[in-house]
Automatic annotation (TrEMBL):
Location in the cell: Membrane
Organism: Stephanodiscus triporus
Signal sequence, renumbered to the chain: none
Topology in membrane: Multi-pass membrane protein
Annotated protein name in UniProt: Protein YOP1
UniProtKB keywords: Membrane, Transmembrane, Transmembrane helix
This protein's record includes keyword Transmembrane helix: yes
Recorded GO CC terms: membrane
Length: 164
């Protein structure tokens, strides 16, 4: 019998697969399980591993971390566009502004990246902090770091207000 922690993890992944049957092609995974006698979770983990290996081979850790910072926020942005609430629009618009500034800064200072240990893990943690609903770090970065420098510059580009 396998380790109880491994069994628990397999059960959680199986529950995730069952919760989103269309997304994860649950029926096809179940058919594979019946034909081979191997748990469908193994096939799922194998497929996900192949996908991540291909992404890594194509673009390395930079591409993987950029996708980490893009995929979920893009999904949530599409949902926000379709919702009637303003607060989620503000959250995701703010995230994309911060993401853009970070991406430009990362490209400008790319020569420093190799000197920072665990840079890509730190980058993933930063993106997670920016968009996780518990933290909403993008709003903080915008208010404390970006806005104080950008807004005065934008105000200088506006035509003078007419006095009545």
């Amino acid at each position: 019998m396998a380790n109880p922690q491994v069994q628990q993890m397999i059960q959680k992944v199986d529950e995730l697969l069952a919760a989103y049957p269309t997304l994860f092609q649950y029926d096809k995974l179940r058919d594979l399980e019946k034909k081979t006698g191997q748990p469908k979770v193994y096939f799922f983990v194998g497929i996900v591993s192949l996908i991540f290996s291909a992404i890594y081979a194509l673009g390395g850790m930079k591409l993987m971390t950029d996708l980490f910072g893009f995929a979920y926020p893009a999904y949530m942005s599409f949902k926000a566009i379709e919702s009637s609430e303003i607060i989620d629009d503000t959250q995701w618009l703010t995230y994309w502004v911060v993401f853009g500034f970070f991406s430009i800064a990362e490209n400008v200072m790319s020569f420093l990246i190799e000197w920072i240990p665990f840079y890509y893990m730190i980058k993933c943690a930063f993106f997670l902090w920016l968009y996780h609903p518990k933290f909403l770090g993008a709003g903080l970065v915008y208010k404390q770091v970006i806005k104080p420098y950008v807004m005065p510059a934008l105000e200088r580009t506006q035509p003078p207000k007419k006095q009545e």
